[in-house]
């Protein structure tokens, strides 16, 4: 039922800007794939190329077995012939149409019977908790409400593939969370292949089957959220994913099973690493002790930031600064001595020069 989307060696330039640089990925049927990366990395361009709103200047795109774009063969099917959903973006409502008309517009073009259209309007408004807004114009609603109507319109259309470009970006934190819940349910129920653009790493981690991390038009890693979080393939991905950020420490491999960080050494469990490395340690993977402990290193608590469910502690040792995350409200006080322990199982080593993950 659902569709595979295959992207092969896609590239796109805007003048001298390289928006996409040899991007290849296979989006499996029924998966929720997120294009993730900082502003300007090419996410929207990639989505628009798949939708047929932009012509790449190299590469090929298949929807199922259908070749919808090929630069070498000079093929570019218009959006309507690609059997994909509309690209759903912020404020994409027609300003001069009321809500119900906004939702039925695309369905009328398909010549859907009126009874069925009204049913779809009702159902889709229910799905986004906007029942009773059929007669409003977009300007008579808040930005968040407009986005929910835009989402309802997309739901009503029931495409085989959902294409969404930062659909929740204008919502406040609470509503964004609610909408993530609903979007994830929607994907779970419909099973429709989804390509979802966001620059929000938490959103990507929470929503996706697979995440494509991009930087400057290049694909950095295409993997499950678990792999992206625990085994970022390079320093860019490691640094981009996670809040608070990963600790990245310069070191030199000394002997077979340890890295020298200058002030102290920490154990590692790989024999592949040599020379200059960067050690990546997630804040929650450091254990804090409030008294000396064998194998733990003495630091000072520079700042303690309790946030209810968890606390962030900034620890310092000379120039070195580490971020640690603990569950609950930390009892540690600022400027107290603390002892930190590192688990070789949880840290990642990167080659200093290439920035690439060294196999463990
Ligand atoms: N129509 C366009 N004309 C010129 N440059 C563009 C155009 N669209 C995108 N770009 C440039 O291409 C790069 C990628 O843009 P975009 O795909 O919108 O990034 P993202 O969605 O990740 O923020 C950026 O440098 C952007 O300025
Ligand atoms: Mg964009």
Percent range for helical residues?
Answer: 10-25%
Ligands and ions found: adenosine-5'-diphosphate, magnesium ion
Uncertain parts: none
Briefly note the CATH topology name of the largest domain. Answer: Rossmann fold
Describe the structure.
- This protein is α+β, with helices and mostly antiparallel strands.
- It folds into two domains: 5-239, Rossmann fold, CATH 3.40.50; 244-351, Beta Barrel (OB fold (Dihydrolipoamide Acetyltransferase, E2P)).
- Helices cover 24% and strands 34% of the residues.
- The chain has helices spanning 43-51, 99-109, 114-127, 143-157, 173-190, 201-207, 225-230, 235-240, and strands at residues 5-14, 17-27, 32-36, 58-63, 66-70, 75-76, 87-88, 161-165, 193-198, 210-215, 218-223, 247-253, 258-260, 265-267, 276-281, 286-289, 297-306, 310-317, 320-327, 337-342, 348-351.
- The two termini are 39 Å apart.
- The model has no long low-confidence stretch (mean pLDDT 92).
- Residues 43-44, 197 line the site of magnesium ion.
TL;DR?
The chain is an alpha+beta fold and 360 residues long. The protein has eight helices and 21 strands. The strands form four sheets. Strands 7-8-9-3-10-11 form a six-stranded mixed beta sheet, sandwiched between helices.
């Amino acid at each position: 039922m659902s569709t595979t989307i295959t992207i092969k060696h896609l590239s796109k330039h805007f003048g001298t800007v390289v928006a996409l640089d040899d991007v290849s990925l296979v989006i499996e049927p029924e998966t929720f794939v997120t294009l993730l990366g900082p502003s300007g990395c090419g996410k929207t361009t990639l989505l628009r190329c798949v939708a047929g709103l932009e012509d790449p200047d190299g590469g090929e795109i298949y929807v199922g077995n259908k070749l919808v774009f090929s630069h070498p063969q000079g093929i570019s099917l218009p959006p309507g012939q690609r059997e994909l959903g509309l690209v759903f973006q912020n404020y994409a409502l027609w300003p001069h149409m009321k809500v119900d008309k906004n939702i039925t517009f695309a369905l009328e073009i398909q010549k859907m019977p009126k009874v069925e259209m009204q049913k779809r309007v009702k159902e889709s408004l229910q799905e986004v908790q906007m029942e009773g807004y059929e007669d409003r114009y977009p300007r008579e609603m808040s930005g968040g409400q407009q986005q929910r109507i835009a989402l309802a319109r997309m739901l009503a259309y029931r495409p085989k593939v959902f294409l969404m470009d930062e659909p929740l970006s204008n919502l406040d934190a609470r509503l964004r969370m609610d909408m993530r819940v609903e979007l994830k349910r929607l994907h779970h129920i419909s099973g429709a292949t989804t390509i979802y653009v966001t620059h929000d790493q938490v959103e990507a981690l929470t929503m996706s089957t697979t995440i494509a991390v991009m930087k400057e038009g290049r694909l950095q890693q295409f993997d499950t959220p678990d792999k992206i979080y625990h085994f970022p393939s390079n320093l860019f991905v490691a640094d981009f994913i996670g809040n608070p950020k990963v600790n990245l420490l310069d070191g030199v491999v000394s002997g077979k099973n340890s890295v020298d960080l200058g002030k102290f050494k920490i154990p590692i469990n790989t024999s592949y690493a040599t020379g200059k490395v960067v050690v990546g340690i997630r804040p929650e993977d450091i254990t804090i002790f409030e008294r000396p402990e064998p194998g733990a290193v003495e630091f000072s608590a520079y700042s303690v930031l309790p946030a209810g469910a968890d606390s962030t502690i900034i620890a310092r040792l000379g120039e070195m600064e580490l971020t640690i995350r603990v569950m609950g409200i930390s009892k540690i006080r600022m400027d107290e001595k603390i002892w930190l322990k590192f688990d070789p199982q949880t840290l990642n080593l990167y080659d200093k020069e290439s920035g690439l993950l060294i196999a463990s």
